[in-house]
Amino acid sequence: ATARPLYHHPSRKPLADVLTCIRTRTTLDQAGTRIAPNAEAYVRSGAQMAALFRDHPAWVARTVEVASRCRFSLSELRYSFPSDALCMPGETSDQALRRLTEEGCRDRYPAGTPPQVRAQIEKELALIAKLGVAPYFLSVQQVVKIARAREILCQGRGSAANSAVCFALGVTAVDPARSNLLFERFLSEERNEPPDIDVDFEHERREEVIQAIYEMYGRDRAAMVSEVIAYRGKSALREVGKAFGFSPDQVDRLSGLVLHHEADITEQRVSEAGLDPDDVRVRQAVLMASALEGFPRHLSIHVGGFVLSSEPLHKVAPVEPARMEGRTVIPWDKDDLDDLGFFKIDVLALGMLTAIRKALALIHSDRYAALGGPAARAAQGGAPEGSPADAFDPIAALAQIPPEDPAVYEAIGRADTVGVFQIESRAQMAMLPRLKPRKFYDLVIEVAIVRPGPIQGGMVHPYLRRRTGQEPPVSPHPCLDPILERTLGVPLFQEQVMQIAMVGAGYTPGEADQLRRDMAAWKKHGRLERHRGRLIQGFAERGISARFGEMLYQQIQGFGEYGFPESHAASFALLVYASAWLKVHHQAAFTCALLNAQPMGFYSPSALVQDAQRHGVEVRPVCVVQSAWDATLEPAADPSAGPALRLGMRLVKGLGEAAVAAIVAAREDAPFKSLPDLVRRAELKKNEVEALAEAGALAALVPARREALWRARAPRVEGLFDGVPIEKDRDVGLPQLRPLEQLALDYGRVGLSLHDHPMRHLRPALKRRRGAGRVRTAEEIKAARNGESVRVAGMVVGRQRPATASGVTFVTLEDETGVVNVIVQKQVFADHDQVARHAALLLVAGR
């Protein structure tokens, strides 16, 4: 006896019908028998089922009997992690971990392991042995060794950077001798769950690591984790619109009603999008999309989660081929695996690691000094003098970047950070001149403080006032001084909140970690409230004022799920410093590496190239006889200015890597004599020649771009007249491209222009505008006083509305002198909705 339920309540039938149409790719009008004519397929109570089948009570009894026999406990799954990684014959995993940790300590601390680090390591090894998780640490180090054997940069991050053992193993890069570690943030006996170590790898070479893991552990014993992708505003509106039978244009307009994470859809916005707000179908579609938000849409591969097993995984979990070739996936997400006690290694991708490695390879190459680059090899490590070029070690080169360089902090303090990891966003660049980092720990704070947690917790302004001497640092109690001293009495990190709870309120490490978890999920579960009385009472017992307890609780609420671990901030700060050092001392090489690591980072290639030019780098255009696929360095016209940067053909839209490889191979055989010679020997297709012509890349063969376009688009005479001399076309005297025509081609094909900018052509018209003051350039805005009314115009290169920004939208404008960061309040954005969402150029008035 069954009602074949599809929904829990009859009121959910309309949503179920829409989901059926989405799944079967049809519309509500065309669904026919795929959707039921009534709302009877809902979950009934026992009494309702008995009444429904009152003529067949035996059916009901049989159903109950079958259901009672369908029993399975997840505890029956016997998962075990591989236990022999890096173990020598006869050695246990605990013994192997101790041996490798000791070896790592000798490498990390040639003068001897500091006593506090030694004590921390012993504490960690004891707990790791007690929990039986040494094999996990060994496997993570094995994965790191795989990468380093291939000279792939990698670095652990997240809570694992709280571990001195992870640092000794070379998994993380945060030195416990310089940091205030809280191991319990990473691993706790009371928590009773597997550890979780995240490791970042170069994003272009992560797949090498993934495939090496499969080969090492066996494809039947390794699989990637799934992630449940849910419907969000845009996707929900788009799919619902299709189910309602809207036209493609209407579907586009419907999905354009929302931007990023916003939820409110007003009648005005519907009307401005060209839809009728009084149309019943439009109103129903908007309501249905709202109901659909948060529903699972499909399974995807997790960004990097890997499950390893000592036995074939299919014995304990379903395993299926992934859409991506060479991968398999378990259709469970990370929370499922945590509940089941499966160990997961996160093999993540980070574009900045790719860029740093490429930049280091450039500056340590044998030809870099000949190009006019500052000396790098002897001063900063890498291969010894006289070594072959392929002896370059990116890990050693990264580790030997000089620490605490005043020039680096000076550049950071004036927000000269375009392209620099983590501190290149609008909000970070606005904070840098106020915080003015002067040492490494300042970078740790900078990474963490411009986050929703500290901002919503009201911690940013008190910290800045104390840092600038406007108010003295105040400690609520001497027992908390060691915890809060480095952040001037203001808790900025998750670890500090945990330590305050332990020292100030008597929490155990496990209880403090539970506090952190409840912080992260308090909006979902509301479990944070139970800590309020406990914290205030615990503080009172130790002589800490109730006022501080209440203030801390409010800050914790603000922290919510957005608080930053200090260990994670410290891991990222290392890359902040490394990328800033490269930018300050090797701008051309750094920009070259950033361009060759795209897509990544916050800024477009156009913004990166403009920034390099402002720093005196000579940037040369894409050229079919000079450029490779990647950007390269060349001798500059002025050797004292450092290397010149030649743009690569990868920037040309419509030109694939295979075509570029053919061009380079033909060019290496012999220089190109003419355009026909290029086309013939590289076997280029017509559309590829057109792409090169529009990009201006044929200038060395056909100097006039219009002539190049004419010849690229000319019909080819093939076959019938092969070998027959044909009279050459008469010179028709084509006029030169006008500046705006050339600019349009530059941006259309390359995405940037080396010699022009759209705003340069609009500037005269802006100067003629009357009204509320002149329109300033991005460079002039830098000299504006705080609070001064200004007007600025530019090309929109970025729109961002974080989920935690209370409706604020961040817009980046670019003009011929630089970039301007604009903060658009929610109501202002709503008042100018269509323009704010879709305009390519904006004129903004503000303060």
Task: Provide the fold topology.
Blueprint: H1 13-24, H2 46-52, H3 57-69, H4 93-108, H5 115-131, H6 134-149, E1 154-157, H7 164-169, E2 197-202, H8 206-217, E3 222-230, H9 233-243, H10 248-255, H11 267-272, H12 280-292, E4 296-308, E5 320-321, E6 328-330, H13 334-340, E7 344-350, H14 351-363, H15 377-380, H16 394-399, H17 406-413, H18 426-435, H19 440-449, H20 452-456, H21 460-467, H22 481-484, H23 494-505, H24 509-520, H25 522-525, H26 529-541, H27 546-559, H28 566-585, H29 587-596, H30 605-614, E8 619-620, E9 632-634, E10 644-646, H31 657-669, H32 675-682, H33 686-694, H34 705-713, H35 739-749, H36 758-768, H37 778-781, E11 790-800, E12 809-815, E13 818-824, H38 826-831, H39 833-838, E14 841-846
Parallel strand pairs: 2-7, 3-6, 8-10
Antiparallel strand pairs: 1-2, 3-4, 4-7, 5-6, 9-10, 11-12, 11-14, 12-13
Helix pairs in contact: 1-9, 4-5, 4-6, 9-10, 9-12, 14-28, 14-29, 17-28, 19-28, 23-24, 26-27, 28-29, 29-30, 33-34
